[in-house]
């Protein structure tokens, strides 16, 4: 599938608690807003969603007092693909309601999952599985099966790797290099079939990380540009064209409760006019931590208002294009 044009999508999470009624509410709201590629309602922690499934399957990952750890030196690979229940619930719901929606499946990536799992003493992230490429490879193998299953019904897949902006600066602080990161992401991409697949990394993107991601076989790169405008400096139209990448532009804040006006969002979008004939507009990141004065409900309402303005700004962007 080759994308052409300008689209809207979400990153995934919202601040309301996970329940069937909240999933239905969230999905209905996203459809009503007219989001082109909504992520299934992701209402639990992105790591917990996948790792709890693995803990239940006795693959060597354990959890105690909310902290994940490795009981041995390896992670068992004979497991069912984890983390897919919210996605499968969404697809079942849409089928039952006879609704045609291009759902984006958010899959938490192996590097981020590895950063949750403690393997020794010391300080994070050096005491976690992200410091060991062998363990990351185990997780990548497992997550690749989740990608394969999701690709049968999803219209788009996003590999979510927020930890990469933390660990990849001027260099990689572990005993593996950029070729390992590229190899892992290319293997994940291959398991996703023909649908568009990308990677989401929030936070400040270093030139080194940008260079690595541009060398992968991913179709789109998703980053925050509203709260981190300096990311514009590391992703030029020239580099994206050479890497054959679509840019997914975070154009509204996912943590500031201020609701950006349609014009403010459009002003940011216009900075990307020279970035090719395809762009995907999203929030900077998920809205899970957008809790206003202790209220998850207020945070959710603000998130929906932000998304409504983002959709309206995208329509105006298309009119000018």
Q: For the CA atoms, what is the radius of gyration? A: 19 Å
The amount of beta strand, in percent, is: 5-15%
**Secondary-structure class:** alpha/beta
Could you tell me the number of beta strands? 10
Commentary on this structure:
The protein is an alpha/beta fold and 321 residues long. The chain has a single domain (5-320), classed as TIM Barrel, CATH 3.20.20. Helix content is 39%, strand content 14%. The protein is built from 11 helices and 10 strands. The chain has helices at residues 20-33, 46-56, 85-96, 110-114, 133-150, 164-167, 178-190, 207-215, 237-242, 262-269, 296-320, and strands at residues 5-8, 61-64, 67-70, 104-108, 117-118, 156-160, 197-200, 220-224, 246-252, 278-283. The radius of gyration is 19 Å and the shape is globular.
């Amino acid at each position: 599938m080759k994308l052409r044009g300008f689209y809207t999508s979400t990153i995934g999470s919202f601040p309301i608690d996970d329940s069937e009624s909240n999933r239905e509410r969230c999905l209905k709201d996203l459809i009503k807003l007219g989001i082109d590629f909504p992520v299934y309602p992701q209402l639990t922690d992105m790591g917990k969603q996948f790792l709890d499934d693995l803990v239940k399957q006795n693959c060597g990952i354990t959890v105690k007092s909310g902290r994940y750890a490795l009981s041995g030196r390896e992670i068992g690979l004979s497991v069912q693909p984890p983390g897919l229940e919210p996605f499968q619930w969404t697809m079942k719901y849409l089928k039952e309601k006879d609704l045609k929606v291009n759902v984006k499946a958010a899959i938490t990536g192996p590097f981020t999952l590895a950063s949750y799992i403690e393997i020794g003493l010391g300080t994070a992230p050096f005491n976690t599985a992200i410091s060991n490429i062998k363990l990351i490879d185990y997780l990548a193998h497992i997550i690749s099966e989740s990608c394969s299953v999701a690709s049968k019904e999803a219209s788009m897949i996003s590999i979510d790797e927020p930890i990469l902006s933390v660990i990849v600066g001027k260099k990689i602080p572990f005993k593996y290099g950029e070729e390992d990161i590229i190899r892992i992401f290319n293997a994940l991409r291959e398991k996703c079939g023909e649908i568009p697949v990308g990677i989401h990394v929030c936070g400040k993107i270093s030139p080194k990380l940008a260079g690595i991601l541009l060398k992968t076989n991913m179709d789109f790169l998703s980053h925050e540009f509203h709260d981190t405008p300096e990311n514009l400096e590391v992703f030029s139209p020239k580099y994206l064209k050479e890497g054959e990448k679509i840019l997914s532009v975070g154009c509204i804040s996912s943590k500031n409760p201020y609701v950006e006006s349609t014009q403010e969002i459009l002003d940011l979008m216009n900075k990307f006019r020279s970035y090719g004939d395809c762009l995907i507009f999203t929030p900077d990141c998920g809205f899970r931590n957008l809790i206003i004065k202790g209220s998850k409900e207020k945070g959710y309402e603000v998130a929906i208002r932000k998304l409504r303005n983002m959709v309206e700004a995208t329509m105006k962007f298309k009119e000018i294009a």
